[in-house]
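Blinded run. Sample ID left blank on purpose so nobody reads anything into the name before looking at the predicted structure. Input follows.
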Amino acid sequence: MVIYCLGYNPILILRRKTMKKILSVMLAALMLLSVASFTSCGEAETLKFGMGISAAYGDVTSAEGESNGTGEVIATVAAVLVDANGKIVKVELDTADNTVEYTSTGAAVAGEFATKYELGDNYNMAAYGTDLNGDGKVLEWYAQADAFETVCAGKTVEEVKALVGEDFYHGGEELAAAGCTMGVTDFIAAVEKAVANAKDSTATADDTLTVAVVTAQSTEDATADAEGSSELEINFAAAAKKDGKVTVIATDVLAATFTFDANGAATTDTTKAFATKRELGDNYNMAAYGTDLNGDGKVLEWYAQADAFEAACAGLDANGIAALVVEGYGVESLQSAGCTMGVSELVTVAVKAAK
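Blinded prediction complete.
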């Protein structure tokens, strides 16, 4: 009786308690969703990372009198970061246009090699190029390459391929408006390969993208009994890096050999297609003919050894990568990982990309 006189309703109180519990659960759920949403918005999207190389012969000539014979290889490297929708977030490019020489007496000439980006204003496209978009000026090579990279951002590889103009060599209207009026077919081919090679990585749009090229030359003079040769081993590296450290890196090597006789006549087979060591895959035959240097009873193929090298570079700065080589070969941890080949050139080009 007292209960009812005081207006106490146990059913109503029970309902109120139930409602409070339901509201508490709903509020907690909303808070969790808010936190999850905030975390998702705060985390940068991880991107696919890839490198591609497009190479072809340029001029190959025989020596005549005082004029040396020449052998030219043009190799373009592209690095890309690609999002989950196949859009290119960033692209970085460079071209190694390397020419070797040999004399009319069959002697190979030692050369010096720099990429077009490294030549900068000394490449002289601004001075000698042709004004194709009618704006009264020709940008230097590096500025035109920068323009191409900017236009590519936000596009799929199919949209990049569509940037070529009516002559299927120079860029179309969009590239011309940006100042890129030079031939872009090599760029497009390298970008297409880079996107095809792109793999999941921890790189984000905040990472800086770089490419690097280092060319090593070895020569042999011709004799009456044997051809001479000038071989270029062009080492490539692409890296995504942040806060001075490499997030992810890719490496590859292209060999280009030019041959000539004792009179300086070119004998190079220019019909042979170029393939990098990665592209050769198992056909490079390092596993079959390499030397077991770490005593584990096997020799990995070149690409597998390069994979081990790249994995060791992740998280290191330029100095850390430089410390991976001792007397031309990898340090003990690198050897144990299966990378037993000489790594001097790979280290040099990786350090260049990491700086």
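Unblinding after everyone has recorded impressions. The longest strand covers residues 245-260.
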